[in-house]
Write a structure and sequence with these properties.
Elements (H helix, E strand, L loop, with lengths): L3 H22 L9 H5 L3 H23 L10 H20 L8 H6 L2 H16 L14 H27 L4 H29 L2 H13 L7 H39 L4 H9 L2 H18 L6
Helix pairs in contact: 1-10, 3-4, 3-6, 4-7, 6-7, 7-8, 7-10, 8-10, 9-10, 10-11
Length: about 300
């Protein structure tokens, strides 16, 4: 449905906008933002301290509730951050008449520190016991396992980003939560299918093996296909997760004015539309125009 090259462009466009916003949110010019209205009199200290407490608290809750199967699929640290940030942002966006479109960069950038912290913690947890190479393969092939661990760790930041966006871009809190849960369940199923296809079953490796042996006449080792599957999975999932993060940033920036004006924006639907290739979007627009013309013949004149 989506082209990896297009998703990479979506990711790059949003990620390139984050660094200037991060500098704006955490520089020494206090008149450059209004973080104190959202996070109290010492906003930067509060954000950094909150990041540490959120990570530690999330890990503690995960340890306590880890015996329940449900929490194998829920990252409680990300849940804590998503709820805390959504509450703080909603109070400002829907309660402070001074909120304006110029607020988006520093508001969004304040979410970057906990996002980075959660990814690093998830990566360390996945690699703490060591990174194994493919059975029977040289030690250097452990790079595939390492890349897979990094790709899977990015899922936490992607989930946090889309969760805060979905919860903030609607006045109807209850409906926003229901929509978010449905979307995350669907996304979790998609990720599970990707793991099944690229890691458990692995169809890229065998195809690549046959292509190399058939076209070049080179015998490849037995472990080659498994390593190729690992690297393919890591590249694809990293692109998807970064596209979610960068695309959500771009979609929220574009819709921020409408949110302040109307109080309601379907940012998740906007993100889905952005992920479609330009050709697909043009085709949808053409079909919509044709349907409108059929309903209103006078529109053609």
């Amino acid at each position: 449905m989506y082209r990896p090259v297009h998703l990479f462009r979506v990711a790059r466009r949003g990620l390139a906008d984050m660094l200037p916003a991060l500098r704006q949110a955490f520089n020494d010019q206090r008149d450059d933002d209004r973080l104190d209205r959202v996070f109290g009199p010492w906003p930067r200290t509060t954000l950094l301290a909150g990041t540490v407490l959120g990570v530690v608290g999330g890990r503690a809750l995960q340890s306590i509730l880890g015996g329940f199967a449900l929490f194998d699929f829920i990252h409680l640290g990300a849940v804590l951050f998503a709820v805390a940030y959504a509450l703080a942002y909603r109070r400002y966006l829907f309660g402070d008449p001074s909120a304006s479109e110029a607020d988006f960069p520093w508001l969004a950038a304040a979410l970057i520190p906990p996002g980075i912290a959660l990814v690093l913690v998830a990566f360390v947890e996945r690699t703490l016991g060591g990174v194994d190479a493919v059975a029977g393969a040289p030690e250097w092939t452990s790079i595939g396992t390492l890349l897979d661990a990094m790709a899977d760790s990015l899922a936490v930041a992607a989930g946090l980003t889309i969760a805060v966006a979905a919860l903030c871009y609607s006045r109807a809190w209850g409906e926003a939560v229901k929509t978010l849960v449905r979307r995350l369940i669907v996304f979790k199923i998609i990720v599970w299918v990707m793991v099944l296809l690229f890691v458990e079953i692995g169809f890229v490796g065998p195809i690549l093996e046959r292509a190399i042996e058939g076209l070049l006449g080179i015998d490849v080792p037995d472990w080659f296909g498994d390593v190729a599957d690992q690297i393919t999975y890591a590249a694809l999932m990293t692109t998807i997760y970064l596209a979610i993060i960068g695309g959500t940033w771009t979609a929220c920036r574009r819709s921020f004015g409408a949110l302040l004006r109307d109080g309601e924006v379907d940012v998740v639907e906007t993100l889905v539309t952005m992920a479609e290739t330009p050709e697909k979007r043009r085709e949808k627009a053409r079909v919509a125009r044709a349907a409108t013309s059929d309903k209103d013949p006078g529109a053609r004149d």
